[in-house]
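Bench log, entry 3. Co-assembly request; chain sequences pasted below exactly as received.
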Amino acid sequence: MNCFSLGTMKTVTRSYIKKRCNPLIKYIVEGGRPLFGEIHISGAKNAAVAIIPAALMVTGPCRIENVPQISDVTILLGVLQDLGASVRYLNPHTVEVDCTKLRNGRVPYESARQCRASYYMLGALLGRFGAADVALPGGCNFGGTRPIDQHLKGFKALGAQVDTQGGFVMAEAAGGRVKGTSIFLDKVSVGATINIMMAAALAEGMTVIENAAKEPHVVDLANFLNSMGANIMGAGTDVIKVRGVDSLRGGTYSIIPDQIEAGTYMAAVAACGGSVKLCNIIPKHMDCITAKLTEMGVEVQEVDDSLLVSRIGPLVRTNIKTMPYPGFPTDMQPQVAAALCLARGTSVITDNVWNSRFRYIDEFKRMGAQIQVDGNLAIIEGVERLTGAQLEACDLRAGAAMLIAALAAHGISEITNVQYIERGYEDVIGKLRSIGGSIRAVEVPEEEPLAVSSAG
Ligand code: UD1
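Structure output for the full assembly:
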């Protein structure tokens, strides 16, 4: 068992961040091999990055299990420590956070810029202290803006005065506590649903969030908060009712498995061929991805909490339209696009969530893919083969997609900016190697430095 004290945890966190956010690492991938074996899916990144800020609202020790070992988690735990929390790893996937002595603090730009999800500190601090002062996260790597107007609309409706100045959002509730209300989101937003739900959990009275996001991690956050004493009903439907409570108490909670990590390995099997068992998943969460992969000629068999994913025959074209859950997730479109590059016929991807999330396509083209982009549409003509190339990851899922394309391609690829990939995929190299992928990490010589950023 690996048990860190607070002092050690600080050291571990800082050095881990430095190592894992290091742009001076690249992956070398030798493609063209089918994948066979078994992979254990980690805890969900998008749930973890909401639950860790939510722990800030809890008085007493809060034990979180199935925490993925990814840099976004490490960064957020560091932010909690900076705010005065005690953070202790009980084993590599269980962390105990105690925010009892937390100061009602400010999250500075230096912390916020490293992880977009640090904006969840807004809802959490506003709920706990009736006031929050959090720097806005850095730029967007999807290639468009990432507005937070619905988050702010929610905080205002809860009675907070909200100011955005100098790159900070400052929210303050009159009388030191937000008040329950009804909020209709103009747009289905995961982030706004989560931020409002957190603030409302400790509000005075009842809050109703209509047109709420239904993603598994929204439900997971609600379950986490409920297990700590909150009273949240309807998470997973588009109307969430939150009856505010006076305080949250400590407890133990286990994070759900990562739908997108599992989907990414499914897309890798689709692209490379082979047969891989994905363990520790919730099959229901995978339905929207399984349905498309099945259309593409991939066989998916459900056995308890695992999926056996196989592709023996040729890949077949399909069309994909991304939608909020339970639709096809936007966070899976780049990875499935990698497989569709090798499918027979013409496929069309329409991204209805992010309208310019196709920056990765120029990299695919350099591997021989035939793709045209028109606004939020990508039209993919399947080709017989992709060839290895030098690739630069531009965000987390784009990076994962390049990894899949490289594994399926003939020849050797080099992927740089892999710190994006390591923000959201635990031990991606180890997991891929265990199923026969030829991939290794090497240091980039000093003269080729690359940028670091925060989108996610
Ligand atoms: C979350 C996910 C991200 C995923 C996205 C959509 C996390 C940490 N990140 O991001 O990986 O791609 O959901 O599934 O969970 N919008 C507004 N106003 C707002 C907020 C959002 O117009 O105030 C729009 C966005 O521009 C976008 C759409 O709503 O078009 C969905 O965004 P949202 O669900 O909020 O995404 P995130 O929570 O940022």
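Residues 6-20 form the longest helix (15 residues). Residues 46, 49, 117, 146-151, 187, 189-192, 213, 217, 329-331, 353-354, 456 surround uridine-diphosphate-N-acetylglucosamine (CB under 6 Å).
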